[in-house]
Every structure is written in C-alpha cells, then in structure tokens.
Amino acid sequence: MKELIKQLGGQVKEGTTTWRNAVEQFNQQQGTNLTPNALRKRYDNLSDDLDTSSNEKTNEEYETHYQSGVIELQKEVWFDANEEKTPEIVLKKFGYDPNRWVLVEWRFGKWEVAIKSEEQNRVCTTIRAKIKPKTLEIDEKTTLQAIKEILAEEIEPLMFEKQDNNDELDKNKLFEVPAIELHLGKMAWGGDTGQDYDKDIAIDRFNTITERIVQKQSIEKCDRAVICIGNDFFNSDTVDMTTTRGTPQQNDLRWKKLFGIGLKLYVEQLLTLREQFNHIDLLLVQGNHDSMSSFYLYTALQQRFREDPKLHFREDTKETQCYMFGKVALFFNHGDINLKRLIGSLPAEFPNEWGNSKFRELHIGHQHSEQEIILKDFGGIIPRRIGSPTGTDAWHYKERYVGAQQKHQLFIWNKNNGLNNIDFVGFNNSTKKKRLIKGVRR
Questions:
Q1: Most buried by CB count within 10 Å: which residue of 79, 266, 397, 439?
Q2: Cα–Cα separations (whole angstroms), residue 188 to 162, 183, 193, 294, 335
Q3: How confident is the prediction for the chain on average, in pLDDT?
C-alpha cells in the first residue's frame, strides 16, 4: 500500500495526474473509500521515505524536465538589495518567460550572501522551485459564442427538403443512444495488451453501433431519439496528445486528423439516423479525456445541421444533463466525480424534473465497464455505468484494468411505463471488418 501511495503521489507531483484521479485508482485497487485529501495526507506522512533526491540535500544546481511539461529546478539567484522577489521576477531570474510559465511552488534557501564590495550590494540565494507551462483559462460561454460565430461563417449548413412525419412511428417510445466512449485515436498493440486498438478498429466499432441502431429501430419504431455526444469520444484533447488535464496518451492520429475523422463519423451517422426518426434531440456529455474536443465537435455538428428541422441541439452544455420524456427522467454525466455526491445533487439541481418523473436513471461512463450500481442511501433513481467499445491500452493493462467486455448499450423507453428494453452491442477483439455507411470507410 505504501508503494502505491508513493507511486500515485509521485505522479501528482510530476503533474501527470490529479489527487482526484489518484484516489480513484487507489480505492479501486485497495477496496477503500478514501477522499483525495486523505490520500494526500498519507503521502505527506511518507515524505521522509520519499525524499530520495540528492539534489534536495545539496546546493547543487539542477533542472529536471518531466513528460507532463513540469520542470523542477534549483539555482543560485542574484537579487539587488531592494529588489522584490515576486513570482514574475523569480521566473525571469531562472530564464523563463512569465507569459508562458507559472511558478507553482518555490522555496528560498536558508542563507543569503550579500556582496558588500559591489555598489548595489547584490544578494545571492538558492531557490528550489517547480514551474509548469501556462495554460489558457477557458470561459465556456464566451468560447461557445466565439466558436459558433467562427463555424457559422466557415461551415456551410446542409440543406434538407421538408418531410412529413412518419405516422407509423410510436410517439410513446424513445430510443436512447448514450455517448459512445470510443477513445478515437487510442493506439494499443497486442504484444503489450493482448489486443490491438487503433483508428481503423474504432471507426469499425462506431459504424457497427450505427448499424445496430438502424436495425433495432426497424423493430422498435420509436418516434424520437436522444443522442448524447462526448464522454471520451476522443482519446486526447490537446496538440500534444494529452487529456484535458495534461495526462499523456498514446495515439495513432495527430490532433487535426483526429478531430476531422470524428466529425465525419458523426455527420454520416446523423445523416443515416435522421431517416429513421421523426425527431432527434442531441445533448453534450463531456468526458475527462476530451472536454474541449467534444465541445468543439458538438458545436461543429450544431452548425452543420442548423437548417435541419429534425435535429434539435440543446444550447445548455453543463457537465450534468437531464432529459425528460413523459414520466421518464434521464440524467447524464461522465461519471469521473464522487458518485454519491453527484446523485445527491440531482434533486436540488433539477427539482421540477425530479418531481415530475416516476422513472429515473443516471447514465455515466468513465470506467469502461457496464455496472448497475445499488446505493442504499439514495432512493428513487437507478445509476448505470455504460460500457465502452474501446480497447485496452498499455496503461490500463499494466494497472490490471482488464477483463471488462467491450460493448455499448442502447435503451428503449416508454413515456408512461419506463424502460422497455436494453440492447447490447458487443465486440470481438480478433476481427476487423470493413463497412460502409453513407460514405464512411475505414
């Protein structure tokens, strides 16, 4: 247990993960229920054991660069007698631009040596610090408006002829397509993990899900569909192939091509599905791998289909969504936060929807495995973790997150009687098929 705490704490220190993600991994492996703060305290208590760097005990100058972009360094720095020791000044003394770097933490040495023979009486002190690249703080509302304006100019909307509704479809039935946790762009090799996963396999599995929706709809004949987008549809979120929070990923696609393929897949899927339903409602459910990319994808699709009378994109892009259909209330979240706290907050955030519904379910992802979760403390709602069609990468294999069936679920709802049916789309790791759905090829 101590070794795991050391390992996770070291990853947080390097900036490759957060305490929230670290404690989730710790609790899964140890069967505990610690909070992020509790894990941090345990790591701090092991500080004597963790202090293994000889640089920490000497005045030698050093500079250590981590894959996450974080830099730890120790240098002798000279200050004028009355010069302020602000973070910006310290960064400049280190030779780093304050406009591009953030001083995360720093410590001054115990001794300062003044040179009295100089007129300015400069002072020399040793500073140990940690710095990281400055990231852009995102105001989602402002960003959304800016993206919409850009895309409205750049993306020519598809034009559709007006069609009469199909009277054979049942207005009492809803077809739910949870966000597909595809991790498009992920690269895994069978020699490392026992199975391959790449963009071709991901595209094939996405198209398989689309085909199953069409097949299932030919039987169920639902009038309306609700389709969620996001939920780690993309494996990474930045030009450096990291998650939103900066965790490095192994990808087989550069970021521009990754987004282009994802956009094309969803455009072709929606062109296919709009022929199957009278109404399609779309919601954004952002993941922790692709919080920005899924937001851009959703907005690009919104602009592409803005002239389509069948497709309705919700303007609200909060991380937690609620969708009402008769007596049914469906709640959506990626599921990477405290589950009990999430469930406990739903009646407060959605009081009208909670009060006017009889059947309530919370659909979350994140853990790549199907789970129906029973919580005695919270009645009136069924939480379900949705499976993922993604393959196992090297990190998950090494940490022993293996064995979950790779699948995606589809749900059929009746507005008066609740859940009618769950359809499972499973995948065989050993085969790769070529498919064509309205022009989308591997």
A1: 266
A2: 45, 11, 7, 22, 24
A3: 82
Secondary structure E strands in 25-100: 62-65, 71-79
The number of C-alpha atoms within 13 Å of 229 and in the hemisphere containing its C-beta is 27
- The CA R_g of the chain, rounded to the nearest whole Å, is 26
Distance (Å, whole) CA 384 – CA 194: 28
Judge contact between 161 and 210, C-beta under 8 A.
Answer: no
N-to-C CA span, the chain: 44
Helix (H) or strand (E) holding 156: none
The token pair that represents 361 in the structure block = 């379910």
Alpha-carbon torsion, ordered 22, 25, 27, 28, to 10 deg: 170
The distance from CA 31 to its chain's CA centroid, rounded to whole angstroms, is 24
φ, ψ for residue 69 (rounded to 5)? 105, -15
3-state secondary structure 256-321: HHHHHHHHHHHHHHHHHHCCCCCEEEEEEECCCCCHHHHHHHHHHHHHHCCCCCCEEECCCCCCCE
Are 397 and 190 in contact by the 8 Å Cβ rule? The answer is no
CA distance 402 to 419: 30
Domain 140-426, CATH: 3.60.21.10
pLDDT tens for each residue of 131-166: 888 765 555 566 666 666 666 666 777 888 788 899
Its sign, for the CA torsion 11, 17, 23, 28, is: negative
Provide the residue ranges of all domains of the chain, joining segments of one domain with +.
2-50, 64-133, 140-426
Give the integer Cα–Cα distance in Å for 60 and 54: 9
Give the pair of three-digit tokens for residue 77.
Answer: 């720095």
Residue type for position 41: K
Q: Residue 104's pLDDT is what? A: 85
Q: Are strands 311-313 and 279-285 parallel, antiparallel or unpaired?
A: parallel
CA–CA gap between residue 329 and residue 213 (Å, rounded): 22
Task: Mean pLDDT check: name the lowest of 216-225, 278-287, 359-368, 414-423.
Answer: 359-368
Among residues 267, 322, 321, 337, the alpha carbon closest in space to that of 298 is found at: 267
The tokens 């020699």 sit on which residue? Answer: 191
* Residues linked to residue 334 through DSSP beta bridges, in sequence order: none
Model confidence pTM above 0.70? no
d(CA 33, CA 23): 9
DSSP state of 55: G
Q: Are strands 328-332 and 71-79 parallel, antiparallel or unpaired?
A: unpaired
Task: Categorise residue 15: left if φ over 0, alpha if ψ from -120 to 50, beta otherwise.
Answer: left
